[in-house]
Amino acid sequence: MASLIGVSSSPFPTHTSHLVPSRSNSVSSLIQLKRYSVRRLLLLRVNCSSRQVEDAETESESKVVLPDTSVDTGISAYNWCAALGGIGFLETSYLTYLKLTNSEAFCPVGDGGSCGNILNSSYSAVFGVPLPLIGMVAYGVVAVLGIQLGQKSRPLGIGEANGRLVLLGTTTSMAAASAYFLYILSTKFTGEFCPYCLASVLLSFGLFVSSIKGLGSEEVQKDVGILLLTVLLVVSTLNNSYSVSQPSSTSSAMDEMEYFKTEITTESTPFAISLAKHLRSIGAKMYGAFWCSHCQEQKQMFGRDAAELLDYVECFPDGFKKGTSMVKACQEAKLEGFPTWVINGEVVSGEKQLSELAILSGFNMKEELTEAPTQALTEAK
């Protein structure tokens, strides 16, 4: 029995020993498979998330790059406005100084006469205001607006949109005025050259193009009506100014005339000589032009000797050419015609009789006529 038990019991442990390892292996394989699946899922999630991050970064980069490009374009255009406006400001400041001090401009090209004839002509002022001074203000405004718009700040405290519109309106006015003056140069000053004028034209057109580029074509199309109205206003203002500023005594048919001197043929009376001396002693001046017939008649009243004693100012000593302005002394006197007398601070226009001039100047005929022989005897001794 015992042997039977020993014999029969021997196989069971052996069989059990074979079954147990097989179960543990299957469990471990299941655990490994589960771990592998979990790792796969984690890798898939990581890969998906990394791809999503890369896609998001790519989209964000594309979204960021596009606005930066447009901003760079705007800044570039307004930087051009600032640079060109600064150059124009310097040029017009120099010309304004020359105008106010009555100095001659340095002309790097040509004999230099063309610059002076054009810059000192009647076209160099608008309603009495020197044209370089107007240009200096305009270029200064454009330069300031260009700098502030380029920095994305509020230009002159009026806001970016309004600042761009003001810039476009200013440059449009400058371009229209430059086109008008280019026409004047080609028709009134043929054969003459002014580098300052041409430089201002180029600067104005460059500023106009830069302001359009900065604002954008779509915005410009919305404001076409305002721009055309600005051009018409500038042209009409210049036309009215120059129609008023042209000398009234100048014939429209007279375009050019060389200076000439008319001989005085009449003899001077003692009264005329005494009156001429008196007028000179009190600082009275007679303003005239060599081509003015009334000026010559006024001199004939005084006679040859007395006319030489007058303090006479010739307003066109270098001849007359259409568009050429008078000398500075005549401009400061604000003449309305020829001849013009300035006696004791009073401006008297037109040809005057000697008796009228005597009354206006406070000339005492009796005292002067009685003192004249006495002075002659004293000089003879």
Automatic annotation (TrEMBL):
UniProt keyword Transmembrane helix, yes or no: yes
Region (Disordered): 1-22
GO MF annotation terms: NAD(P)H dehydrogenase (quinone) activity; quinone binding
Subcellular location: Membrane
InterPro entries: Thioredoxin-like_sf (IPR036249), VKOR (IPR012932), VKOR/LTO1 (IPR044698), VKOR_sf (IPR038354)
GO CC annotation terms, alphabetical: membrane
Entry protein name: Thiol-disulfide oxidoreductase LTO1
CDD domains: VKOR_1 (cd12916)
Gene Ontology biological-process entries: photosystem II assembly
UniProt main location, coarse: membrane
High-level lineage: Eukaryota, Viridiplantae, Streptophyta, Embryophyta, Tracheophyta
Keywords carried by this UniProt record: Disulfide bond, Membrane, Oxidoreductase, Quinone, Redox-active center, Transmembrane, Transmembrane helix
Positions of the Vitamin K epoxide reductase domain: 74-215
Family: Belongs to the VKOR family.
